[in-house]
Amino acid sequence: MLLYIDPGTGGMLFTILVGIISAGIYSVKSIILKLRFRIKHGKIEEDTNKIPIVIFSDDKRYWNIFEPICCELNNRGKDVTYLTFSEDDPVFQSSYNHVKPEFIGKNAKAYARLNYLNATIVLSTTPGLDVYQWRRSKNVNYYIHIPHAASDITLYRMFGIDYYDAILLSGEYQIRDIRQLEQLRNLPAKELMKVGIPYMDVMMNKFQQAEEVPSHPRTVLLAPSWGKSAIFSVFGGRIIDTLLKTGYHIIVRPHPQTFVSEKELIAKLMEEYPASDYLEWNTDTDNFSVLYRSDILISDFSGVIFDFTLIFDKPVIYTNPKFDVSQYDAWWLSTPLWTTTALPRIGRELNSQNMESLKTLIDTCLEDSCYAMGRKDVKQETWEYCGEGTERVVDYLLQKYDELTRIKGDK
Questions:
Q1: pLDDT tens sequence across 345-382
Q2: Cβ(143)–Cβ(74) under 8 Å?
Q3: End-to-end distance of the chain based on CA atoms, in angstroms?
Q4: In a domain? residue 13
Q5: Are residues 189 and 97 in the same domain?
Q6: What is the pTM of this model?
Q7: Which strand ranges, in their side-by-side order, compose the sheet holding 166-169?
Q8: Same domain, 132 and 55
Q9: Number of folded domains that form the chain
Q10: In terms of residue numbers, what domain contains 323?
Q11: Same structural domain for residues 313 and 175?
């Protein structure tokens, strides 16, 4: 007789098995990490004074996520400690009296600092808490996650946000998906707060105050992500060839990680297609200017799609790389990714079959009014509390801090 296990039970058993294996692996890694740190740096010193609020950033490119929050906390006279993996993080050039930046190194030294942190609240955009090297500190009361894009919360590596205490969100569909994951994995319910998107509020305000873009040739921005499913890996130089045939001004803005993980590919493309009057390569740290002066964006699964279309109210052309979700939280859910339902409403899909008609796709997206209506609907779904994000985030942080210190008696 064959043993039948229904999908729900099978999923639960799989979760338990993964949890047991992961716990064993990362417990051993934690011990090794601790020993290596002690051998190299001496005894680990735990913080004796509790830090009220810590912001942790694993890369300098996330400063745009945290800058408006730091600014608001500083304006309210609230102290915050900013821990970063980047020695050249822009936080070190800020002049906030109440923000204390600290470069904590990388690898073992950095994780030792995080894993023995003594703080009331830790706010971070980094997934993988208590899954990989970053472990929950017994001296931290509350971990809060803030996403760095206005899209699906389930496109983190599996279990990426499971062990946070709270998630700050901007759309009801994100709450739905997290609650489904919690039920499937038998996790305690996290505190889920819709607060908006602070960094997009900043960009929107900047856009509203910016001078009108001077008259210019129709401009197309190609901004792919990186990896085997990204535009350059799928189409190579063919897409640049096709874009140049349109006669439009083309701006190519590769993802920063491309220059790290795909050095040979990007070097080859930049050599084959050098800058000219018709082609521009853009690597600005701040993407506001290039987004502002572009008429349409071509991208894949990069979060810049929603920055572009929701802030600047412009259409996009996107690729559908048959994104493999098997390693991501989205794999667990029966509902389709919100992103896949949103993209057809804000632009057109580009594929191998219609590549030669790319000019027609561009013109259609720019001239068909249906995409303007789609952008309005998508914005309502994924960007609630537009313009209120920073204030709502800081209100929540301070209210949570008061609640925790009142309960724990840590004041």
A1: 999 999 989 999 999 999 999 999 899 999 999 999 99
A2: no
A3: 63
A4: no
A5: yes
A6: 0.84
A7: 99-103, 80-84, 51-57, 118-124, 139-145, 166-169, 191-194
A8: yes
A9: 2
A10: 203-382
A11: no
